[in-house]
Q: What sequence folds into this?
């Protein structure tokens, strides 16, 4: 499968999981997927396959911005980087959902955090931490 096709598949899988987190957080299937971290594990396996298979790009690495740029000029490694974001952002989304449910924070307040985490990762996490701090200090 070429990187563009894998990109579409992993994006659809991640988007479906985010839909469940945002709109069906208490549904049995959503809870099962969150508890066992099924989708992040699938994404992690895909990430490992691409990293192991394609990491040997001349001049690429993590030692400088030029090396990182060289890394992401390769479509397979760019895809690996994207899958990395998808997997870790989902794990943060799982944390937010489970933390909010355990602290009885209204899901209405959590929805913007999840959407922000889906789109801009750390921004959603930061918003959730602010909401959690405010709700637990009241």
A:
């Amino acid at each position: 499968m070429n990187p563009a096709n894998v990109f579409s598949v992993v994006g659809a899988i991640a988007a479906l999981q985010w839909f469940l987190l945002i709109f069906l957080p208490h549904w049995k299937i959503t809870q099962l997927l969150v508890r066992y971290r099924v989708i992040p594990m699938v994404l992690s396996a895909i990430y490992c396959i691409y990293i192991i298979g394609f990491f040997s790009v001349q001049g690429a690495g993590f030692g400088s911005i030029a090396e990182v740029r060289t890394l992401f000029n390769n479509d397979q490694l760019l895809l690996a980087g994207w899958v990395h974001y998808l997997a870790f952002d989902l794990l943060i989304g799982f944390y937010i959902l489970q933390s909010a449910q355990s602290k009885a924070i209204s899901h209405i307040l959590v929805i913007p955090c999840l959407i922000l985490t889906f789109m801009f990762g750390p921004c959603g996490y930061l918003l959730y931490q602010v909401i959690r701090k405010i709700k637990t200090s009241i």
Notes: The radius of gyration is 17 Å.
